[in-house]
Amino acid sequence: MSDFTPEVQEAIDRVRADVARLHAELVRYNLVVWTGGNISGRVPGADLFVIKPSGVGYDDLTPENQILCDLDGNVIPGTPGSDRSPSSDTAAHAYVYRNMPDVGGVVHTHSTYATAWAARGEAVPCVITGQADEFGGEIPVGPFAIIGDDSIGRGIVATLTGHRSRAVLMQNHGVFTIGKDAKDAVKAAVMAEDSARTVHISRQLGEPIPIPPESIDRLFDRYQNVYGQTPQGALGASGTDEGDRQ
Ligand SMILES: O=C(CO)[C@@H](O)[C@@H](O)COP(=O)(O)O
């Protein structure tokens, strides 16, 4: 049985609860069928992360049956859930945590439209402002990689390092997203599917109009730095970026 400080134990318990609960969001947003997706969350202040057990139905996930792993993807023996096999994508999640220290959450799904782009090995071009806001450009494609070792993780890290996008379409497979925590990575998975769907439909109707790169930059900057609630409170009365920042 591992002994953790009270602070680390509290953080583990919090991440267990978040990871278990957030899987319901994958169902709510239609990003998964059966058990085809997984979420993990890094434990702040420790070289640990929590991931779901492999092949267990989302309705059966509880904080206690989530699995605590070290950053090499080894299950921590004697901890709740450690009698079960962790997600088949554990090595990929672990590789991301080891190599992207700012990442606090990872999500994988086979959501339909994003995976359809992945099956063609084509990046989703940035032709809608919502995608510019969220991803700051295209949603890129990562290499074809077979599950079982860290090649999926290497593909994710190689594609997303230095890229604005928090989502990668792993060729012929599905989507991996990263975030500051598990919830943030879930949001990226929801937004990636939404973009992939809209741009796909647009393509059926004709040729989508590209957004100029400088406009993408402005949209991304505004959404990342101004949009929503700030510690200062309400947005500027003018409704302009200038006013928003005051
Ligand atoms: O993509 C795959 C398998 O190809 C897995 O991510 C998916 O089936 C979910 O597996 P887990 O239930 O997390 O082991």
UniProtKB/TrEMBL annotation:
GO terms for cellular component: cytosol. One of its GO terms (biological process) is pentose catabolic process. The keyword RNA-binding does not apply. Its cofactor is Zn(2+). Residues 17-200 form the Class II aldolase/adducin N-terminal domain. The keyword Oxidoreductase does not apply. PANTHER family: FUCULOSE PHOSPHATE ALDOLASE, L-RIBULOSE-5-PHOSPHATE 4-EPIMERASE SGBE. This is L-ribulose-5-phosphate 4-epimerase.
